[in-house]
Design brief:
Length: about 675
């Protein structure tokens, strides 16, 4: 008893220490259970939750009391329950110590969550099953990643199939090669028919492409650049197909090439299509070349036709103007000369009627002269392009109130008549455009020589301008439009430039070849009639020394007759010779030695200007009076420059003509030769 009493305190102390250790162990268990980073639970053998930690509640989305009132079967996704229960049965049967599966729980919000479930069975000291110890880990993130990866792999597989591609992975040091199913297809094999190996692949490369393919591969490895090469492969059946290989090299820590991965792409159809396209392109290019040549030929024909039409129009204009000048106007002048006799009639009624008729004739002559100038200005052919442009300036001012400054450079007169007419018509068309579009009262025309073989015509204004890229300038005066100008320029290797901007005025520059050619000279006919008249005039001169000897030079016989009739009525004037062209006028003047020559400016062959120049050179004492149907300052200046003392219109009054002859003879009186 005494011994037991002495042992009792120590026993009690040991028991207390054991209880303390037990309590401490239980505390640590509870803390580790509750604060675990994974879900933990104890589940009875029927599946009811006995104890759960907070992390498990977070995973399944239930409050603790809600979860403890349920079984694991109730929150397991039906598709995963059979596998779970099968493992439970094996665990209870002692077939396995524990199991781990991936399954889905149904959360409180009805959503699904993937978990990794590990279950172990707790048995008591007698070995009887007590409860299940469960560890639950949330793997939803990993599952989502795996699903995304699976979808990407599926998309890649579909893309490879659709694109007829295959992937490959080559370990360079061992020369081992792995490739996808598509790789077999691209080499003409069934899947698995050929063991993946670099040498097997190399044998399939076309012999003619093998060296180039391997050289490209080695260069990409050595220079650390992407591998890309198109080549042919020979299938087991002997057919040849085009593929493209692309890849990248991976280098180890020492910088040595370790492996290379990439794709093979079927480009056989692309290559065949390219070959077909090349063939089609060659055929198409030939057709286009043929059609282009045909179109250019037609365009050239159209340009030539346009040029011919423009030239035909000018020829017709000049023909009509010539008809008016040589026909109607000469008849009107001759009629006026005849009526001049009636105006001297002593009967006042006859004289008054003659005056009225003379007024009507003057009006008809003026209208005819204006129409002739509109059709084809004679000054252009008699005084050259410079004179024509100056006449055009006056015409634009009188008719359209446009002030035109004309500037003519040295040596700028075209030698070719066609060029002269073309530049004149161009200047007129451009000035009409100024009148219609520029909204300015003035313009400038410049004609200059550019180098040895080019002429430049520039028409400029300071008007409102336009956008050359957007403008579609058409002819404004009818007939000779800018389109025709461009077409003519192309034919003669000329150029057409427009510089303009809205509000900044316009400058149009045209350049043409000077192309000097000897002027065509029509043969001068020294008529027998003229020679006879010259001889008769010489006889008359010897008989009548006191009269003023006059030679008439005009290509219209009716005008010569009218003038001769008027002059012979005057007692101091004697018509000693007549000529129908310039050459004949020079010959008659040399033969008859007249005091005065009445010289028509416009005559065939040698015109009146050149005839005047030759007469004044060889017979300086002869006074030449120029006559023309046109009141043109340029013609007057040209005649006076050639040596004429006066310039008169043919329709001038008879008394004015006689007065001029008498006055000029009086001024230049000289001894007459024999």
């Amino acid at each position: 008893m005494e011994g037991n009493a002495r042992r009792s305190p120590s026993v009690r102390a040991g028991r207390r220490r054991s209880e303390s250790l037990l309590r401490e162990s239980e505390h640590r268990f509870r803390v580790s259970f509750e604060q675990a980073a994974v879900g933990m639970a104890h589940v009875d053998l029927d599946g009811r939750w006995l104890r759960v930690n907070e992390r498990l509640c977070e995973i399944v989305g239930y409050r603790r009391e809600q979860l403890l009132s349920r079984t694991f079967q109730e929150i397991t996704w039906p598709e995963d329950l059979d596998e779970d229960l099968a493992n439970v049965r094996r665990l209870l049967a002692g077939e396995i110590p524990h199991y781990t599966i991936e399954k889905r729980y149904i959360r409180s919000d009805a959503s699904l969550i993937w978990v990794s479930l590990t279950v172990a069975l707790y048995r008591d000291e007698a070995g009887q099953p007590g409860y299940f110890h469960v560890v639950v880990q949330d793997i939803s993130g990993r599952k989502q990643t795996e699903e995304a990866l699976r979808q990407n792999e599926e998309r890649l597989r579909l893309a490879l199939e659709a694109g007829r591609m295959g992937t490959w992975d080559w370990r360079i040091s061992s020369r081992d090669l792995e490739w996808s199913d598509g790789h077999y297809t691209l080499l003409g094999y069934s899947v698995g028919e050929l063991a993946p190996a670099y040498e097997a692949f190399r044998r399939r490369v076309h012999p003619e492409d093998r060296e180039r393919q391997e050289r490209t591969l080695q260069q990409s490895i050595e220079h650390r650049k992407e591998y890309a090469c198109e080549f042919r492969v020979v299938w087991p059946d002997g057919s040849v197909h085009w593929i493209e290989a692309r890849g990248r090299c991976v280098y180890d820590g020492r910088g040595a090439a370790a492996r290379m991965y990439g794709v093979l792409v079927d480009i056989d159809q692309k290559r065949r299509t390219e070959a077909e396209l090349r063939a089609l392109n060659e055929t198409l290019e030939q057709r286009v070349a043929d059609r282009t040549a045909e179109a250019e030929q037609r365009a050239e024909q159209l340009r030539s036709l346009a040029s011919e039409l423009a030239e035909a129009e000018q020829r017709e204009r000049r023909r009509l103007a010539q008809l008016l000048h040589d026909g109607l106007q000469q008849l009107l002048v001759a009629t006026k000369m005849k009526i001049a006799w009636l105006r001297r009639d002593p009967n006042p009624r006859i004289a008054q009627a003659a005056d009225r008729a003379n007024e009507l004739l003057d009006e008809s002559i003026n209208q005819s002269r204006s129409l002739t100038a509109e059709l084809s200005p004679p000054v252009l052919y008699d005084a050259g392009l410079a004179g024509g442009l100056k006449w055009l300036a006056r015409h634009m001012h009188d008719k359209h109130f446009l002030s035109v400054d004309v500037r003519i450079g040295d040596g700028a007169e075209p030698a070719d008549e066609g060029t002269k007419v073309f530049l004149f018509q161009t200047a007129r068309e451009l000035l009409f455009n100024v009148v219609k579009h520029a909204e300015t009262p003035s313009a400038r025309v410049e004609l200059t020589r550019r180098g040895k073989d080019r002429l430049q015509l520039a028409v400029s204004d300071s008007g409102q301008g336009f956008d050359p890229a957007a403008a579609n300038v058409r002819a404004t005066s009818g007939g000779f439009g800018l389109f025709s100008i461009r077409e003519r320029l192309e034919l003669i290797e000329g150029s057409f430039r427009v510089a303009s901007s809205p509000g900044g005025g316009t400058r149009v520059v045209i350049e043409v070849p000077h192309d000097p050619k000897p002027p065509a000279v029509l043969p001068a006919a020294a008529a027998t009639e003229n020679a006879q008249r010259a001889r008769a005039g010489a006889r008359t001169r010897r008989k009548s020394y006191r009269k003023i000897r006059v030679v008439l030079a005009d290509d219209h016989a009716i005008v010569r007759q009218g003038l001769a009739g008027l002059l012979r009525e005057h007692p101091q004037i004697d018509v000693v010779g007549e000529a129908s062209d310039g050459r004949a006028a020079v010959d008659v003047a040399r033969q008859t030695q007249p005091d005065v020559v009445l010289m028509d400016v416009n005559m065939p062959g040698m015109n009146g200007i050149e005839a005047t120049r030759q007469i004044r050179k060889s017979l300086p004492g002869v006074q030449v009076i120029g006559l023309s149907m046109h009141e043109e300052a340029e013609l007057a200046r040209a005649m006076q420059a050639a040596g004429a003392v006066r310039y008169l219109c043919k329709d001038t009054a008879c008394d004015d003509l006689i007065t001029t002859i008498l006055s000029q003879h009086a001024v230049a009186a000289r001894p007459r030769g024999c």
